[in-house]
C-alpha cells in the first residue's frame, strides 16, 4: 500500500470512529463506569475485616503465579464488554452504509477519490480490528483503577501487596487475548458481518428488517422446498458462543487457521463483495 | 480547443420514467458551462452520470476517463458540490478538513484555511450547527483548495439568501476560476448565472434542447418586436416562440438571417431567460 493509499485508509478509519463514537467509545465507557460504580458500592458496603480478607485473598492468590497462565481469570469479566460490542456491531453494520444515503451526505463521501471497495473494507477493518481496541482500552482502564484501589487498600490495612503486582501483570497479559478473541470472533462471524453490510448498502429503509426478513425467507424456502434445515443448523452452530469463545493464545491460532474459519471468511467475503457492488451502483 | 466532457446518447430509466432520453453533450475545456432546465428535467441525473454516481447507457468520456469504470480515479480531477445539505452534519469543520486532507492528494490545507479565515465559520463547530450559507461557504472553500480539472456544481445555491448566492458566484469567479479548469453549473435560476457563462445547455424531459457557446447565441437567436402590419410575414418565418411585450408581439427566431428579420421590426438579442422560456415552450409544444 503506497503512502497516499495508506493516508486515505487512515482517513476512512478515523471517519468511522468519529461517526460512530457513541458505539465504539461511549458505550464501553458507560458500561465500564456502571461496573465500577456497582463494584465500588459492593466493596464499600463490606465490613472492614471482610475488606482485609478480600484484599489478602487476591494478593495471595496471584502471588508468584505466572501472569501468562493466570491471565485466563481476567478473560471472563470482559464478557459483558464483548456482549455490548456485539450489540453495537449489529447497530453499526446495519447503519454504516445506510445512514449517509438517508441523509444524502453519501454525495459528499463519493465526491472524494475513494473507491467503494476501500469504503466498505474500512468498515470491515473497523469492526474486526478497531472497535475491539477501544473496548479493550476501557477494560484496561477498569483493571488499572481496580488494582490501584486494591494496592492502596492493602497498604492501608498493612497487607502484603506484592501479589497484587502479579495480579496487575495477569490482567495486562489477558488484554491481548481478549483483543485477539474479539478480532478472531469477528472473523468467525464474517458471514453475518457481510450479510448485514449487504443490506445496509442495499435497503432504502430499515436495513436490519431487510437482513432478518430475507434470512427468514431463505430459511423458510429451504424447509418448504427441500424439507431440510441445513442453513438454520449452520447458523446455529456458527453463532454458538461455545464454538468461538477462546481464553488462551493457542486456541486463537488453532481457530484462525481452521477450515471452518476459512469457509466462513470465504462466505463473508462474497457478501462483502455484494455490499461493494451495491455501494457502487445503488443510486 | 479540447473537450473535457463528451457524451453521446446517454439513457437512464427509473422504471418507466426516462430521466435521460439520449443526451448528447460536448463541453470544451476551460468553459464555464451552464446546464439549465426546469425541475425534473434531468440535470442532476446528467451531472451524476458525469461523475460516475449514476449508471447510464451510452458513450461517456470525462477528463479522459469513463466515469463508470474508475470513478475514484476520476474524482482526483473532478470536484462536485450538490445542494447545500450534503456535508455530514456530525463532523466538525476541522474534522472535515482533516478528512479531505487525508483522502485527496490534490488538496491544499493552507489554502482552505486561508479561505475559511475570511469567513465567520468556527473550526470547532459541528456542521449541523452552521447555517445553510456557512455550509455552502465551507464546501466551496474545500473545493477551491483542490487542484482539479473539472468542477461540477448541482444547484449549489439552492435555498440560500441573495447575499450568500452572490458571494458564492463572486468567489467562484474571482478567486477560483483561472481559465484552466472547467466549471459546470446546473440550475433553474437562469438570471443568477447568465453573466458567468461561456457555454450554455438547456435540458428538458431528458433531452438537450440547446447546446451553444454564449458568443454564438446572438448569431443564432433573434427576438423581433414585430410591427403589427407585418405579423403575417413574421408567422411565415417559423418563430420558435411568440410572447406579448407591452402590447406588441415579440417573436423569437432560430437560425433566421438577421437582415431578413430587421425588415419585420426592432431586432434584439434574447436574454438567456427569454431564450430558456422560448426553448422550453418549443419543447413542450413541438
Could you give the topology of this structure?
The complex is a heterodimer of chains A (283) and B (286).
Chain A (H helix, E strand, L loop, with lengths): L2 H17 L1 H24 L3 H15 L4 H4 L8 H17 L3 H4 L3 H4 L6 H41 L5 H27 L1 H13 L4 H20 L3 H10 L9 H8 L2 H23 L2
Helix pairs in contact in A: 1-2, 1-8, 2-5, 2-8, 3-8, 3-9, 5-8, 5-10, 8-9, 8-14, 9-13, 10-11, 10-14
Chain B lengths: L2 E12 L2 E12 L3 E5 L6 H8 L6 E6 L8 H4 L3 E4 L11 H11 L5 H9 L14 H13 L5 E5 L7 H15 L5 E6 L2 H4 L5 E6 L2 E7 H7 E6 L4 H6 L4 E5 L2 E7 L3 H5 L2 E4 L3 H14 L1
Question: What descriptive keywords fit this protein?
Answer:
heterodimer, A: 283 residues, 14 helices, 0% strand, B: alpha/beta, Rossmann fold, 2 domains, 6-stranded mixed sheet, 4-stranded antiparallel sheet, 11 helices, 13 strands, 34% helix
Describe the model.
The complex is a heterodimer of chains A (283) and B (286). In chain A, 80% of the residues lie in helices and 0% in strands. Chain A is mainly α. Chain A has one domain. The mean pLDDT of chain A is 90. In chain B, the strands form three sheets. Chain B has a six-stranded mixed β-sheet, sandwiched between helices. Chain B starts with a strand and ends with a helix. Chain B has two domains: 203 residues, 3-Layer(aba) Sandwich (Rossmann fold); 70 residues. In chain B, helix 4 packs antiparallel against helix 5 and helix 5 runs parallel beside helix 6. Chain B is globular. Chain B has 286 residues and is α/β, with parallel strands linked by helices. Chains A and B meet through helix 1 and helix 7 of A and helix 2, strand 5 and helix 3 of B.
How would you sum up this structure in a few lines?
With 283 residues, chain A is an all-alpha fold. Chain A has 14 helices and no strands.
Q: Could you say what the CATH topology of the largest domain in chain B is called?
A: Rossmann fold
Average pLDDT of chain B: 90
Q: Helicity level of chain B, as a percent range?
A: 25-40%
Q: Give the beta-strand count of chain B.
A: 13
Q: How many strands, which pairing sense, and closed or not: the largest β-sheet of chain A? A: none
Q: What's the number of domains of chain A?
A: 1
Second rung of CATH, namely the architecture of the largest domain in chain B:
3-Layer(aba) Sandwich
Count of the separate structural domains of chain B? 2
The SSE order of chain A reads: HHHHHHHHHHHHHH
Rg of chain A computed from alpha carbons, rounded to a whole number of angstroms: 22 Å
Identify the overall geometry of chain A: elongated
Q: What is the oligomeric state here? A: heterodimer
Spatial gap, N to C terminus of chain B: 33 Å
Strand order of the largest sheet of chain B: 5-6-7-3-8-9
Q: What structural category characterises the helix and strand content of chain B? A: alpha/beta
Amino acid at each position: 500500500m503506497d503512502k497516499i493509499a495508506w493516508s486515505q485508509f487512515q482517513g476512512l478509519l478515523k471517519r468511522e470512529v468519529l461517526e460512530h463514537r457513541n458505539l465504539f467509545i461511549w458505550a464501553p465507557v458507560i458500561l465500564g463506569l456502571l461496573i465500577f460504580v456497582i463494584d465500588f458500592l459492593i466493596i464499600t458496603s463490606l465490613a472492614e475485616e471482610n475488606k482485609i480478607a478480600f484484599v489478602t485473598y487476591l494478593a495471595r492468590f496471584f502471588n508468584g503465579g505466572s501472569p501468562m497462565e493466570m491471565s485466563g481469570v481476567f478473560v471472563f469479566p470482559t464478557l459483558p464488554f464483548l456482549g455490548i460490542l456485539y450489540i453495537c456491531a449489529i447497530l453499526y453494520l446495519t447503519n454504516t452504509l445506510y445512514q449517509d444515503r438517508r441523509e444524502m451526505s453519501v454525495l459528499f463521501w463519493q465526491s472524494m477519490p475513494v473507491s467503494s471497495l476501500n469504503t466498505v473494507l474500512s468498515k470491515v477493518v473497523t469492526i474486526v480490528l478497531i472497535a475491539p481496541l477501544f473496548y479493550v482500552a476501557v477494560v484496561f482502564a477498569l483493571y488499572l483503577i481496580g488494582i490501584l484501589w486494591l494496592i492502596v487498600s492493602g497498604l492501608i490495612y498493612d497487607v502484603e501487596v506484592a501479589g497484587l503486582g502479579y495480579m496487575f501483570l495477569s490482567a495486562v497479559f489477558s488484554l491481548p487475548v481478549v483483543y485477539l478473541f474479539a478480532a478472531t470472533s469477528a472473523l468467525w462471524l464474517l458471514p453475518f458481518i457481510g450479510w448485514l453490510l449487504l443490506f445496509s448498502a442495499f435497503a432504502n429503509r430499515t436495513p436490519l428488517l431487510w437482513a432478518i426478513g430475507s434470512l427468514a425467507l431463505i430459511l423458510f424456502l429451504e424447509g418448504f422446498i427441500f424439507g431440510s434445515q441445513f442453513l438454520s443448523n449452520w447458523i446455529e452452530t456458527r453463532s454458538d458462543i461455545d464454538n468461538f469463545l477462546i481464553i488462551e493464545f493457542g486456541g486463537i491460532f488453532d481457530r484462525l487457521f481452521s477450515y471452518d474459519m476459512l469457509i466462513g471468511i470465504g462466505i463473508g467475503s462474497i457478501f462483502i463483495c455484494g455490499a461493494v457492488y451495491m455501494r457502487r451502483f445503488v443510486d | 480547443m479540447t473537450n473535457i466532457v463528451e457524451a453521446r446518447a446517454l439513457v437512464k430509466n427509473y422504471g418507466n420514467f426516462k430521466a435521460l432520453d439520449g443526451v448528447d453533450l460536448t463541453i470544451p475545456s476551460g468553459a464555464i458551462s451552464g446546464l439549465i432546465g426546469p425541475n425534473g428535467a434531468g440535470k442532476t441525473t446528467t451531472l451524476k452520470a458525469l461523475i460516475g454516481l449514476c449508471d447510464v447507457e451510452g458513450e461517456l468520456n470525462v477528463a479522459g476517463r469513463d466515469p463508470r469504470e474508475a470513478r475514484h480515479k476520476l474524482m482526483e480531477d473532478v470536484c462536485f458540490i450538490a445542494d447545500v445539505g450534503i456535508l455530514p452534519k456530525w463532523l466538525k469543520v476541522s474534522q472535515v478538513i482533516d478528512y479531505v486532507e487525508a483522502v485527496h492528494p490534490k488538496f491544499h490545507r493552507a489554502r482552505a484555511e486561508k479561505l475559511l479565515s475570511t469567513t465567520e465559520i468556527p473550526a470547532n463547530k459541528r456542521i449541523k450547527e452552521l447555517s445553510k450559507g456557512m455550509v455552502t461557504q465551507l464546501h466551496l472553500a474545500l473545493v477551491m483548495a483542490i487542484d482539479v480539472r473539472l468542477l461540477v456544481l448541482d444547484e449549489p445555491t439552492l435555498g440560500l439568501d441573495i447575499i450568500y448566492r452572490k458571494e458564492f458566484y463572486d468567489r467562484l469567479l474571482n478567486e477560483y476560476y483561472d481559465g484552466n479548469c472547467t466549471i459546470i453549473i446546473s440550475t433553474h435560476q437562469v438570471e443568477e448565472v447568465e453573466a458567468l457563462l461561456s457555454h450554455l445547455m438547456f435540458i428538458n424531459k431528458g433531452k438537450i434542447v440547446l447546446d451553444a457557446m454564449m458568443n454564438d447565441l446572438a448569431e443564432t437567436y433573434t427576438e423581433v418586436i414585430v410591427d403589427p402590419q407585418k405579423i403575417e410575414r413574421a408567422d411565415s418565418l417559423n418563430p420558435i416562440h411568440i410572447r406579448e411585450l407591452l402590447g406588441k408581439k415579440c417573436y423569437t427566431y432560430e437560425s433566421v438571417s438577421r437582415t431578413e428579420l430587421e425588415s419585420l421590426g426592432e431586432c434584439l438579442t434574447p436574454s438567456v431567460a427569454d431564450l430558456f422560456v422560448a426553448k422550453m415552450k418549443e419543447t413542450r409544444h413541438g
